[in-house]
Task: structure prediction
Amino acid sequence: MADKDKPGTAWKVAPSEYIAARQKDYGIPKEPLSVYVPMRDGCRLAVDVYLPQRKDATPGEKFPAILIFTPYYRRFSLSEPGVEPTPNAAKYRDAFVPCGYALVVIDVRGTGASFGTRDSMRSPNERDDSYEVAEWVAGQQWCDGNLGATGISYLGAAACFLASTGHPSVKAIAPLFAVSDIYSEQLYPGGLLSKIWMTSYDELMIALDHDRRDLLPSFPYFADPRFAGPQPVDEDKDGALVREAVAQHRENFKLADLGREWFYRDSAAAHDPKLTTKACSPYGYVDGIKPDVAILSVSGWCDGAGYVNGSVTRFLSLPNPQWLLFGPWDHGARTNVSPWRGAPVPEFALMGELVRFFDRFLMRRKNGFEDEAKVHYFSPHGETWHADDQWPPRAKERTLHARPDGSLGESAPEGRIEHQVSFTTTTGMSTRYERLGTANIIDYYPDWTERSAGMVQFETVPLERPLGVAGHVVAHLKVASSQPDAALFIYLSEVEADGRARYITEGMLRLLHRKLGVAPRDYRTSWPYRTFDRADAKLMIPGEAEEVVLALLPVAWTLSAGSRLRISISGADAQHYPQVPHGRPPRLTFMTGGPDGTRFVIPVREG
Result:
């Protein structure tokens, strides 16, 4: 089955229906207008503007504008024609401009053809720049004063940055696959350093920021040999300015160096006590978003190590008119991750949903968008879209207790299960993490049956009827460690009748960070919250059992009748996270039985 929005009744007007019926009166210019826009400190940002074209245009016609802030080149120069020069923004140009929107694409400071240097991941300087760019766009003679912003990943977080400046022209944003907190959702999920981010990101940015075309073939998104560096702006006829800008980029920060100074969530860069992960995260500025700014957040069940949590906390923390859309997608919706899909390429009309959203809140069209459900989500194996007015969805909690024999049930006898951690354990190289390193994954977790075999396993009996899971599975582990620190990785799987295991989702935690806290107002959660602050970090007493609570990443999934629900636990994921503790693989003991024994709370979807 495909992820199409039809058949089904999740929408009153399906996105595919809306975009098919939407009148498209304008053409796309062959080339954008391209200029430098000066910032407050003299730094010049390269900006491309795509204006709607038509022969019978009204003199002085004005358009709402969609802004795209990217560190991945607003446009490539080409050594020869035949390839799309705007891989980051082409889909938005082709969707919005024919519908009467101006599209504005910006190389953020220290990237592409823009001048300056980057001093951190999503620097506060970039947030300040976004206000000035919005001011410039709103003041152009072709702009009607209504601005929106969207984009995937970094671009989506930049849209949140723009809204948080409080610029009066910003009316709507659609952050796609975008984090709210770079500490827990990106760099240190569960308090564990993400090796993918600390290595692959720097390699990509060196290739782009330093104009190292010899390195680009390693990254599928940018591997075309006809890409020839950042496109100069129109005034830069001989490319001298872009060469000067690229020379400045060689002074950009390195995430692998700076990121390790942020070991705790409240850690600051040694050279600047104000430079924390919160200062570089959209959630740190939610108070600046005007309450009338409409927000559509989009993510997928295999979206990195916590990006979907960013969408959820944004939805829960702000009083704004908001909508959530979660599909069977990886980071950026490049792949439909459902094993039961019809084709690997998603078929959902995402651009149709975005056009309808911005039509309502930038063009003020009465198209019924606000009458749709607040939440839409797709359930793999059921292969069905669902609608709800809340997150988490309406569900009944079912508690399954771990038993010493490896089964799961409504109760459990007292007992203990020993597990010697092996630091060679890995989930492989076709996981939710590789996409963050720009790998082109088509089949996710194809060898999960074998990969998970050496982990601690707890299973239900075969299900008598289909079981719908929707939300966060929460693990309550009564666990002891032979070492004062350890890592826990918990996986949810469906084991089909033939014994094949299907990966569903996972959660992770460094035991150093096991203390729970109260979610702050700017980062509301639908899962047990922890600060990850230095003051709350505490080593375990070796051999002494404690209750440790952690949530798995949210998901919707329908297990078939005859399948079994499986929980797997490991103490390592060698490809993606460091050893904890280094060179000392711990022995873990899980206690069962009684009201506080190891157990798992499953959100079972109603209906």
Q: What stands out?
A: The domain at 395-605 is CATH 2.60.120.260 (Jelly Rolls).
